[in-house]
Amino acid sequence: MLRDTLTKFAYPSSLVKEYKHWLVLLRKEQITLGSLILICKEEKTNFHSISQDAMMELSIVTKDIELGLSRAFKCDKINYLMLMMVDPEVHFHVIPRYEIPVTINNQEFIDAFWPGPANLAVNNNPVNSEMFRFLQEKVQIELGESSPEKKYKRIYTSGCFDLFHYGHLNILENSKKLCEHLIVGVSTDELILESKGKKPVIPFEERAKIISSIKFVDEVIPQKDKNKQKVVDEYQIDAISVGDDWRGKYPPVSCEMVYFPYTPSVSSTILKDTLKLIK
Predict the structure, then answer these.
(1) What is the model's pTM?
(2) What pLDDT is attached to residue 16?
(3) Are both 254 and 164 inside the same structural domain?
(4) Which domain holds residue 195?
(5) Which of 93, 122, 142 represents a domain boundary (last residue)?
(6) Dihedral angle over CA of 144, 8, 56, 42, nearest 10
(7) DSSP characters for 172-235?
(8) Pair 55, 159 in one domain
(9) Do the domain assignments include residue 147?
(10) CB within 8 Å of 13: residues ≥ 6 apart
């Protein structure tokens, strides 16, 4: 699973930059100076299977990486290795190449494999935690992560999103303004039937696709039950955002709560009632 692969590569502590469809991580094993992992956020094990949006974004990500590593470390070349044998999810090992040794922060880094192919099983450049953080911050700056920090790393919000409307959009847009990564839980058809006694107008697959297409949303997950703490723990959520009509009624969670003004003039119920009158 993707989550297992991310854990192996020390995510989220190794994160350098997050895109809508890709993550850039700093390798714990610095095969050469500035070695990275570029991994797709989609659960795909074949390169041709990733979405068109992810494929299009890849050109932006690789440009950022190549220009950023060149500025940071003056590398001579960059190798992209897509192996996917032990870890099957779509990812690249990004290995900067150097003709001569490079000294940075009083440590010399060598490219022992130049001019041949790099060997990922050999680590000639061990780094301690202090050096790792130094390299991580340097690459973050060069890849454009030096913009003002947002209040939260990861925010979660959820809903049925049956007949998507302006009130939903308000919550998503305002949530994204506060965080780097917005995760949205879309209630499954089964959960809606269980909690409301009737099926949604729009089936889950279509509702999830609508939400995932919104530019403010970074990740969509199915909301199968009302256990919010489980989501907080599994996805390392810093805050949950909801409309202020939930104040005092939301289930207790260990993360912070963010309440946005409720949009009283519009709701899925109002839309459904209006459609009944039109018929």
Answers:
(1) 0.57
(2) 93
(3) yes
(4) 152-278
(5) 142
(6) -130
(7) HHHHHHHEEEEEEEEE-HHHHHHHHSS--SS-HHHHHHHHHTSTT-SEEEEE-SS-HHHHHHHH
(8) no
(9) no
(10) none
